[in-house]
Write a structure and sequence with these properties.
Elements: E1 4-5, E2 9-15, H1 16-24, E3 28-34, E4 37-43, H2 55-62, E5 68-77, E6 83-90, E7 98-105, H3 114-128, E8 133-138, H4 143-151, E9 155-160, E10 168-173
């Protein structure tokens, strides 16, 4: 997978070594490949937040195959090389050309525009790969996440009232 760039962030592929090391505990540092070569990236104890329960499944899904979780990235601050969040695709592109994404930041990184940068870079990448519509779901209570999507040109298309965790707003983004 490519490394995606935004003004302040590197979006590095989520790899088997990162999954294994995070499951062993946090905080930690790990040497990762960046556009500037191999660099040590710091992972704070709160990283990756809500996505942590998925790590064991993703590691098992990798099996003996590739070392990268397909379509999934670590948001790393370009200046201090700290992991600020995790984002990526949820499943395969649908027959209609739609691809759902998910994202999250560590608490200290919220409210600083990092989510807008990271999600924007991911959406641009997905459209360049031929995805017709990028979708995302947010809780009606998570207004900050909704604002991120609105800033990027997503529009709310419906409410999914039957979601197991309560109602979710469905957002969609098509290329301009």
């Amino acid at each position: 997978m490519p490394v995606l760039l935004s003004p302040r962030l590197l979006l590095l592929p989520l790899t088997r070594p990162v999954l294994e090391r995070r499951l062993a505990g946090a905080p930690f540092s790990l040497t990762l490949d960046t556009p500037q070569g191999a660099q040590d990236v710091y992972f704070p104890p709160e990283w990756p937040g809500d996505a942590l329960p998925l790590f064991q499944t993703w590691l098992a899904d990798l099996g003996d195959g590739p070392d990268e979780v397909p379509g999934t990235f670590i948001a790393v601050h370009r200046g201090h090389l700290s992991a600020l969040g995790q984002l990526g695709v949820k499943g395969a592109v649908s027959a209609a050309g739609e691809q759902e994404i998910g994202y999250g930041l560590t608490p200290d990184a919220r409210g600083r525009g990092y989510a807008t940068e990271a999600v924007g870079a991911l959406v641009t990448h997905l459209h360049a790969q031929g995805v017709a519509v990028v979708t995302a779901r947010t809780s009606p209570d998570n207004r900050a996440s909704g604002r991120v999507l609105q800033k990027l040109g997503f529009r709310q298309v419906r409410t999914d009232s039957g979601a197991p965790d309560g109602p979710l707003l469905l957002w969609a983004h098509a290329p301009a």
